[in-house]
Amino acid sequence: MAEPGRVLVLGATSAMAQACARLWAGRGASLLLVGRNPDRLEAVAADLRVRGAARVETLAADLAPLEGQGALLDQAWARLGAPDVVLLAQGLLADSDACEASAELTARVLQLDFTATALLAQEAALRLARRGAGTVVAISSVAGDRGRQSNYAYGAAKGGLSLFLEGLRNRMFRQGVRILTVKPGFVDSPMTAHLRRNALFASPETVGRAVVRAVDRGRDRIYVPGFWLPVMLVVRHVPGWIWKRLRL
Amino acid sequence: MTPESWGRIPRLRPAAVVPLHWAEPAALAGRAAPILAHGLGRSYGDACLNEGGTLLLTRGLDRFLALDEAAGTLTCEAGVSLAEILTLVVPRGWFLPVVPGTQHVTVGGAIANDVHGKNHHRAGTFGGQVRWLELLRSTGEVLRCSPDGNRELFAATVGGLGLTGLVLRAGLSLRRIATTRVAAESLPLRDLSEFFAGSAESDQRFEYTVAWIDCLASGARLGRGILHRGNHAAGPGPLAWRSGSRLSVPFELPFSPLGRLTLGAFNALYHAAHRGAGARAVEARGFFFPLDGVARWNRIYGRAGFFQFQCQVPPPAAPEALRALLATIARSGQGSFLAVLKNFGAAPSPGLLSFPREGTTLALDFPDRGERTARLFRELHAVVADHRGRIYSAKDAHMSPAQFAAQHREALPAFRAQVDPAFSSSLWRRVTGG
How far is CA B17 from CA A54, A156, B38, B55, B58, in A? Predict the structure, then answer.
């Protein structure tokens, strides 16, 4: 999508979504922003208009429920027109201590990060397939490549999402719809505000540039920053009997 | 990493560091006092530090809200940097009417320190270009302040060192430019009297004037330097902006390479290179922000860090005061490679505590050499006090409470009445004793 196009952004107030949207806005794209908080959506929309977007609209909606994805996307399609790119950037991060203290929180993590997002990816891909063009981009995580003691619920949801997207990509290949799985490492954003910053942290802008480039090039899957690709290659091959003893 | 000021000293730890992401009333909810906003950390001493308190990092408030090209105004959140503004508006033929010596400051920081540039004699301060600002008080109230509404709070917030609350958004004036080229000239100055004569003449014909002074020169050559002057060039010409730096200092040097010999050699070379450079067209970026060419240049002073001294002295006493200041600095042998001299214009500043006022301003860096440097600062501050001058709070780490009270005697009661009781800074506690 090097030329101006139409972009549907779900979870539009997330730091990574904003970074991507700014780059598309700078190319003159039209955007529809979906998120929970109308005031924040409006602040993001105003910024994107100044940065060059042809048109920006907002739609306040909760993306966590397990039903209504089709109706929501129909509404988005009607407002924006058929998008060239659908970005799924909503997410919820909770560590294992918090999840073990609350089964309800564990359920919310699994539901938002996996089930609801997978349903949106599926419904969006099916709608794009009618036109035979377009890209669904979903933010997964390196945390989904291996189960770890520190955030296994989040990791399982992201791992499940990555697998779902891989199958969906396979399914959509002959329909002309691309599926891009984005696997960031640590990103300096409100979601990770409780974590100590170190050299592994990337800025949302770094992720944004990588995502926009990957969409332009029709990539299937990217690790951001790129050093996570060899790191996760090694991590995935650590034998289970060693892995279970680690404190990662 | 603990937030630092640009001089990297004093090192003062806040109890909490909170990155802000949304310009909304909840930004202050539940924050433990004393609170202070911290943007890009370009003030030098302790104006942007808050030992034992809460530092709110404002860089996440980085959204533009509106660009009105008919009115020539830009509205944005307070954490937007001037570099980001220039990147947006320059290709459309706009520029900021007042820019300081670096573009890497936030709008909130530029307001809180009421910064000035090389065109102060024409355009006044940054605060004069602020049409309005939105201030969040610790009560949760959001107040729109301008020269027309909530006037007292506006005057206290501009140049108010971040003590009146958290600036959320601001409306700024822009100015037209035809190109990013600047028609620049360099005029060699043999001594201090040539600075005053050259400035008086140049300020009539040039929007931007600033002198670089070799502070190691003494005796008959005291005040030897170069006067840089320029105007925005007439078009047509390029209109492009690049805010990044090609070079960077990747880590702090274990010791400072800036000794008397290296500085002397640098100063002599710089003087030779610019002598008779005459008239030429230069890019605005290098003309306005020469030091931005090297990112994180503050690390070259090494682990010890450095101080900046910037003072202002009123017109009748200025030549005598500057002679005394430059002689003291030359004698100490501690001066930096950059001493900047400029005449401020007569326009009154919009802020109660704004630094600029008619007269001459001198600014230079000193690597911290402990007690020697502290003694030099006491001597310099004494000269400033003798001539009823001012010290720039945004650069300061040494000013005495007596000096602060003296230089803001008339405005201080009105300012105190507007301070938000939940806000404070290490600077404020140091210069007011509480």
Answer: 37, 31, 9, 5, 11
Interface touch B63/A44, C-beta < 8 Å: yes
Query: Given an 8 Å threshold on Cβ–Cβ distance, is A47 in contact with B23?
Result: no
Percentage of chain B exceeding pLDDT 90: 81
Region A109-117: mean pLDDT is 97
Q: Are strands B94-95 and B247-248 parallel, antiparallel or unpaired?
A: unpaired
Instruction: Answer left, alpha or beta for residue B243, where phi above 0 means left and psi between -120 and 50 means alpha.
Output: alpha
Backbone angles phi, psi at A15, to 5 degrees: -60, -40
Per the CB < 8 Å rule, is A50 touching B21? no
Hey, which residues 192-211 in chain A have their CB within 8 Å of chain B? 193, 197
Compute the nearest-CA separation of B346 from chain A (Å). Answer: 36
The whole-chain average pLDDT of chain B stands at 92
- CA B166 to chain A, closest CA, distance in angstroms equals 18
pLDDT, position B336:
72
Strands B73-77 and B54-57: unpaired
Decide: helix, strand or coil at residue A214. Answer: helix
Domains and CATH numbers, chain B: 67-177 (3.30.465.10), 181-398 (3.40.462)
Report the residue of B2, B17, B18, B22 to disrupt the A interface, i.e. the one with the largest count of A CBs within 10 Å.
B22
Q: Nearest residue on chain B to A15, judged by CA atoms?
A: B21
Q: Which of B327, B357, B328 is nearest to B343 (CA)?
A: B357
Tell me what percent of the residues of chain B surpass a pLDDT of 70: 93
Number of alpha helices (DSSP H) and beta strands (DSSP E) in chain B:
12, 20
Extents of the domains making up chain A: 6-243
How far apart, in whole angstroms, are the C-alpha atoms of residue B342 and residue B126?
16
Q: Using an 8 Å CB-CB cutoff, list chain A residues near B1.
A: 197
Task: Judge contact between B223 and B194, C-beta under 8 A.
Answer: yes
pLDDT digits (tens, 9 = 90+) for B30-70: 999 999 999 999 999 999 999 999 999 999 999 999 999 99
- The residue length of chain B stands at 434
Q: Can you point out the beta strands (E) in B78-129?
A: 94-95
User: Which residues, including other chains, have CB under 8 Å from residue B377's CB and lie 6 or more apart?
Assistant: B307, B309, B366, B398
Yes or no: say if A98 and A105 are a contact pair by the CB < 8 Å rule.
Answer: yes
Hey, what CATH topology would domain A6-243 get? Rossmann fold (3.40.50)
Q: Does A47 touch chain B (CB under 8 A)?
A: yes
What pLDDT, in 10s, does the model give residues B333-359?
Answer: 887 766 899 999 999 999 999 999 999
DSSP assignment of B67-90 equals EETTTTEEEEETT-BHHHHHHHHG
How many Å lie between the alpha carbon of A238 and the closest alpha carbon of chain B? 32
* Under 8 Å between Cβ of B209 and B227: yes
Positions of A marked catalytic: 154
Give the C-alpha separation, B387 to B326, whole Å.
14
Q: Is B48 helix (H, G, I), strand (E, B) or coil?
A: coil
Q: Would you say residue B258 has pLDDT above 60?
A: no
Q: Cα–Cα–Cα angle for A63, A68, A73, nearest 5°?
A: 75
Which helix (H) or strand (E) element contains residue A169? Answer: helix A152-172
**Would strands B181-189 and B225-232 be described as parallel, antiparallel, or unpaired?**
antiparallel
- Residues in chain B with CB shorter than 8 Å from the CB of A40 are 22, 24
How far out from the chain centre does Cα B356 lie? 10
Give the closest residue to A17 by CA, choosing from A50, A45, A52, A49.
Answer: A45
Tokens found for residue B43? 């003030």
- Whose CA is closest to B330, among B224, B204, B202? B224
Q: Measured at the alpha carbon of residue A99, what is the angle toward residues A93 and A104, in degrees to the nearest 5?
A: 100
B54 in Cβ contact with B16 (< 8 Å): yes
